[in-house]
Each structure stands twice: as C-alpha cells, then as structure tokens.
Amino acid sequence: MRKLIFLFVLAFTGYALQAQVTFKASAPQAVVTGQQFQLTYTVNAEASARDLRVPELADFDVLYGPSTSTSASTEIYSNGQIAVQTTNTFTYTLLAKKEGTFNIAPATIRAKGANYTSNALVVKVLPQDQQDAAGRAAAPNGEATTSGSSVPKDAIYVKMLVSKNNVYEQEGFLLTFKLFSLYNAGLPEIKFPEFEGFLAQDIEIPQPQWTLENINGRNYRTVVFKQVILYPQRSGKLTISGGRFLATIQMPTPHRVRSFFDDFYDAIQEVNKELVPAPVTIQVKPLPSGKSASFSGAVGQFDMSASISADRVKANESVTVKVKIAGNGNIKLVKNPEVKFPNDFYIFDPKVETDIKTTAAGTHGTKTIEYLAIPRFAGDFTIPVIEFSYFDPKTEKYTTLTAGPYPLQVEKGEGGEAANNPVVSDFSNKENVKYLGKDIRYLKVKGVHFAPKNELFFGSFIYIMCYLIPLLLFVLFFIVYRKQVKENANIALVRTKKANKIAVRRLKAAGKLLKEDKKEAFYDEVLRAVWGYLSDKLNIPQAMLTKDNVETELIRYGVDESLIGEFMDVLNTCEFARYAPAQAPDAMDKLYELTVDAIGKMENTIKKK
After folding, report:
1. How many CB atoms neighbour CB 55 within 10 A?
2. CA-wise closest residue to 331 among 361, 306, 305, 297
3. Is the separation of the CB atoms in 396 and 374 below 8 Å?
4. Which of 63, 304, 357, 444 holds its CA 20 to 30 A away from the CA of 371?
5. Which helix (H) or strand (E) element contains residue 294?
6. In this structure, how many other beta carbons lie within 10 angstroms of the beta carbon of residue 85?
7. Computed over its alpha carbons, how large is the radius of gyration of the chain?
8. CA torsion, points 520, 526, 527, 528, in degrees to nearest 10?
9. Do residues 375 and 321 lie in contact, with contact meaning Cβ atoms separated by under 8 Å?
10. CA 16: distance to chain centroid?
11. Residues near 271 by Cβ (< 8 Å), separated by ≥ 6?
12. How far is CA 212 from CA 59, 315, 405, 441, 513, in A?
C-alpha cells in the first residue's frame, strides 16, 4: 500500500508540473513610426489552446496575423516521470502609424477547459530619425576605412548616469553605464574606473536588452551594460573618472554592392573607436552631529529585532542572544551591535549570517548575529538593552532602535555551584566544557614537618619579607598602573598599538571568506583591513585617508621607498580586484598573501623607528 501511495504521489506531481499553463505576450519596448514589428502570444497548452481573443489594436495597423507555429520539448524529472510540453505561438505583424506611448491590453485564451489572461504591454513609438543618409560616415575620396576618426562624434558614445549628485557619507546611489549608438555596435574591450573614494556593489545584469530612444531627433540603439551601487567613504567633492571602452561599430559604406540576383544593398564595414565618457562629480556631505554612542556608521533605513534562547538555564549551560538587522543601505558595512553580558559569563565570538541582494533600488537584506555565552555561577542576571543606531538620509535624522532587556535566571548546575566544581574550558574547541575535581582530596601523611614550640615566627626573616614583598609589589603596581592610565589617555597611542591586532583579526575573517570562495565579501574584508590598519597606525581618520597622504605620512615615519612602493601596490591591487570584470583563479590567494606580507613588513619597520 505504501508503494502504491508513493507511486501515485510521483505520478500526480509529474502531471501537476506538466499541467501548468502559462500565457505570455511580448513585443518590442520601442519602435519607430512607420516600422513593422511583431506582437507575439505564447501558450504552453498543446493543441487544446483555442479561442484566442486579442484586444483592439486601434493605435496600430494590423498587416498580418495571426500566424501560428507549434514546438514541443521533452523534460525528464528526477522521479523518472517524462513530461512532453507543447508550445503554441500566435504572431501578429503590426505597423506603428503614429508617435506616442500606447498600451496593449491583455489577451485571453481558452486551454484545458479554463480561461487564461496574458500580461499587458506598453509600446513606445518614436518619431522617424531626422537624419538618414547624412548621418552615415564616409571616408575621404570615398575609400573605406577602419579608423574611428571617420565616425561622427555623436554617432556612438557612453554615458555615466547617477541617481543622485548630492549624498551623505555612506549613502548609496546608483551609477549606470549606458551605450548610445546609431549603428549596430559592441564593446569587446572594457575598462571601468577604479571608483576611488567609494565602496562598490555590482548589480547583476543577466541579459542586457537593447532598445530605442529618440535623443535630439535621432533614434539611438541603447543598452545598459553595467550598474553599480556606490557608497562614498569620505566627504567633499569626489570625481568618478569615465574609464575607457573600445567599441566595434558596423557602419554602412558609401558604395552599394550588387547581389547575385541583381539587387543592390549597402556594404558593411567594421570600425573601431575608443570611447571615454565624461567624468561625474559627486558632492558628499559629512554626517551631521548628534550621533549616539551606539552609532557605528550605518546609513539607510533599518529595522532590528532580537530574542534570547531561554530565560532560565543552569550554570554552565549555553544561552544565545540572536539579533537580526534588516533594511536597505550599507548593510554589508554595518558593525555588530554590542551585547553586554554579565562579568561572570564566558563569551564566544559572535556568529554572523547575511542574506543580502544588490539591485537598482540599493543593497537590501538581513544580517543575523548570534551571541553565545555560558554563565558560570547561579543567580539572577539581566542582559541590558541592545541598541542599534543608524542615519536615515531621507529624514536626515539619527534613529536608535532598542531591544530588551532580557532577565536571565541561572540555576545551580549538576553537582552544585561552579565555585565548588570549577569549569575547565578546552580553548581549542570552545564547545567542550566539563567538570573536574569531584574526587575526595586525602590528607598527606608523608613529608610533614612540625615546628618546635619555642621557634617564633614573629620577628623572623620570613615575617619581615611578608610585609616587605607586598609593599614592593604595591609600589610596582602603582607605577605600572599610572603609566597604563597615562598611555590609555593617549587615544592615538592606543590606536597605534592595537592597529596590528585589529588588522590580523580582519585578515583572519578574510581568510575564511577566501576558503569559502566568497569573492565580493573577501575583497570587502581585505580592503577594510588595509584602510583600517593605516587609519589606526598613522592616526588619520579613515574618511580622510588617500593614497597621497598615506605615502606622505609613511615617508615622514622614515619607511623605505621600496616598502612604500610595495604597500601602494597592495592598495592598488585591493581596489582594482574588487571592480575588475574578471580575475585569475588564484588572484584571491595572491592578494591575501601580498596583504599579509605588506602589513607584517610595515609593522616591523614602524616599530623599529
């Protein structure tokens, strides 16, 4: 019976997959007045599709249709079920007779005993090109040429389009690279700008679509071939250079060629032309004053939620606080909110999971942080309020989100208090926690020395040393403590000392991303490690760091020119690798080794100075 039910479910699943009906309409987004184009309706419902009803097409002349074609495809599912899908296509040939933007209402069809409705369409009809043959390029004396100098300046060009020219620090904006051409063209060689002063998040464009646009009376073929979200890292005027693009253009020659059937047609030649779009300047405003203590650079619109795994646990049992941040903005750069556990808790490094997507609307998604801790003693504790602050560029205000507090009752673990049963942690594997010392300690009966009755401890050498040693230790501790307080007051000195530790921690995170082959996240982490190390080591705010002032400061520290050059190469490699269209398979490994080696050499060099 179970086998029969299983086979029935498999057969029903295959039938359900086969029975799905889709009915779609398609047409060009833009056409030119007087141009013929095709309106196509497609339904995957075998020969049972009938009674097609199309909307009234009063804005166009119907030249022919519908012409019908049928195609079939076979698909084999994992359960062995074979599905044969038949697709019917109905095609109308239309003529665009007047300029404007026209809506084509949905059509209906009956298939497999039910009615289905297609999607609606919008077709933009452009005016005819004001220039025809005059816009074609001809070489001097009527000779063909392969030089880009013969191509009119406005015949093909690339533009960088930005969604905003005036933004705040860390506020993302959309940058679009768009090709405009009067002829069929391609871009075999592309070199994008380096986006210096920005962090970039590429937007995937799976299949770039060509369309028509009427610009100054000319009908251009246009295509968006790259989009990227940029996050400015410092305030002021930042300029994005245009990059360089080599275009291959198919241009008609001034000569006409006779075919085998005595017809004349235009001959086509391929012309190469270098395109350099105009640079774009972005005015970046600094973040306003009024930041709260929990603000760590988040800019955008966010929500935060938090939860605790349990409100009652036993000593030496783990408890987890999960914080989830969701929204749109520089979420990849958002630092983890601080969760303050009581002093008697053993705290582990937080576990971070991200689900982030970058679209033309910005970078949005979620970041989930799990904080794991183990209470070592029984008692009533409270995990205080968790705060997360961000700056909203739309309202131009700071917002602080809170969660908690979370009361936690810790009961005695098995065997009594942790004070009587010490916890031993294996730091090589932080999940292994066990009790030791439960056995009875027996009295020692060998090697016991009894002092004579007349032997006095008072006034002896040991008695004096018991006073003198604590006094000396107190004086030494006081001197060291005063020195430590003085050094901690010097924020620049503290940052300098901790620069290498922070860089090493970030490079370890980058190493994990390298093993997981997370390319974009790896380059982000390496770039943060390098700029963060320079900011701390040279005591320069990260927003004000540039390659020029870094080189100047390193020279002032007395660093060798060869080492400065090596470090600049690492910076250039880091920035270029994030935006290059393609990288060698071992590029990430080489970049990681170069970065670790450069920071190590720089640390040793500056310490010796």
Report:
1. 15
2. 297
3. no
4. 357
5. none
6. 15
7. 36
8. 110
9. no
10. 38
11. 137, 145, 146, 147, 148, 150, 151, 248, 249, 251
12. 19, 70, 58, 90, 42
Work out the percent of the chain whose per-residue pLDDT is above 90: 0
Contacts for 4 with CB less than 8 Å, ≥ 6 apart: none
Q: Tell the residue number behind the tokens 């006081």, with chain if given.
A: 478
Q: What is the pLDDT of residue 594?
A: 77
- The Cα–Cα gap between 8 and 24 comes to 32
For residues 279 and 239, the answer to whether their CB atoms sit within 8 Å is yes
Contact at 8 Å (CB) between 253 and 189?
Answer: no
Region of residue 177 (phi > 0: left; psi between -120 and 50: alpha; otherwise: beta): beta
Q: What is the DSSP letter of 119?
A: -
In single-letter form, the type of residue at position 4 comes to: L
pLDDT of 252-269, one tens digit each?
776 555 554 455 455 677
Element (DSSP H or E) covering residue 138: none
Residue type, 10: L
Question: Which residues in 443-453 are b (16+ Cβ under 10 Å) and which e?
Answer: eeeeeeeeeee
Q: Mean pLDDT score of the chain, rounded to an integer?
A: 76
Residue 466 CB-half CA count within 13 A: 7
Cα separation, 325 vs 368, in Å, equals: 6
Q: What are phi and psi of 499, to 5 degrees?
A: -60, -45
By the 10 Å C-beta count (0-12 exposed, 13-18 middle, 19+ buried), 320 is classed as: middle
Token readout for 142 is 């009527």
| b/e per residue 291-316 (b: at least 16 CB within 10 A) | eeebbebbbbbbebebebeeeebebb
More confident residue, 226 or 559: 226
- Establish how many alpha carbons lie within 13 A of residue 174's alpha carbon, considering only the half-sphere containing its beta carbon: 15
The count of other CB atoms within 10 Å of the CB of residue 434 is 10
Confidence of residue 144 (pLDDT cuts 50, 70, 90): very low
Q: Dihedral of CA 328/329/334/337: which sign?
A: negative
Distance CA 216, CA 165 (A): 24
Rounded to whole angstroms, the Cα distance separating 16 from 8 reads: 12
